[in-house]
Amino acid sequence: MTETNVQVIEPHHKKRIVLIDNLRGLALIYMVFFHFIYDMAYLVPTEWGRAALAANQDIVIFDTASFILLAGISSAFSRSNLKRGGRLLAIGIVFTLVTAFIFPGQAIYFGILQLLGSCMVLYGAFENRLCKLPTVVMLAVCAVIFALTFNINDGYIGVKGVFEIDLPEQLLKNNLLYPYGFVKGGYASVDYEPLLPWFFLYFGGTYIGGFITRHRDSLPKFCYANPLPPLSLIGRHSLLIYVLHQPIIMGVVYIINFITKI
């Protein structure tokens, strides 16, 4: 009796969609770079750091949007968004306490970790009901609300240059509603990503993720390919890298500052 080598092909629905990891890895790499130039602009500070920061203001908005959208897509694959969200919220609160104590003028109030944690908890609490709503309709709703609330931090809803509706003064008289995006002039937070408008970008991502899970067997092969293992590894461990990168960057920045002054 002769042996035959049979190649076992893993079904697509059991494979990891590496493309999502790669995109998340790219977004995280840029975010680390942006935080580096931010620290060089304000913690040292340097003129080239401030110039680089100014040149990247628009790019970082796109990168942040990509990161949040990918988080929403990934939530469709999670077994427990409530658990993941609670963990992120806890880490975000620790970030706030530590930065407020060590760098009072550079503290983080409702940064991206608290945003994503809140989004995951909200989505996880109503996930079973939300996933039954029509995908196309909900994507359209999320897109419209995201567009209308994108400039809410500037005190209005609407599309800039098309129509603008000023927010009631009652919402802006203090900063108690800052997690929702209602802030008065002078509010300061190094990393500030409020629920409006970002929740609706994340929320839209969950419907994209749901669509992907229902059509995994129809996805192109490149979605499962892993041409850059280091990049996908970064994407898979984005939370750990995000938590650790800023203290490391700060250390590097201070070392650079020390060496240049010798």
Output mean pLDDT.
87
Described by the principal axes of the CA atoms, the overall outline is globular
Number of helices: 10
Which structural class best describes the helix and strand composition?
mainly alpha
Q: Give the percentage of residues in beta strands.
A: under 5%
| Unreliable parts | 1-12
Write down the Rg: 21 Å
What is the chain-wise order of helices and strands?
A: HHHHHHEEHHHH
Estimate the helix proportion, in percent.
Answer: 55-70%
Question: What gap, in angstroms, lies between the N and C termini?
Answer: 77 Å
Count the E strands.
2
Major sheet details: 2 strands, antiparallel
What attributes characterize this protein structure?
mainly alpha; 2 strands; globular
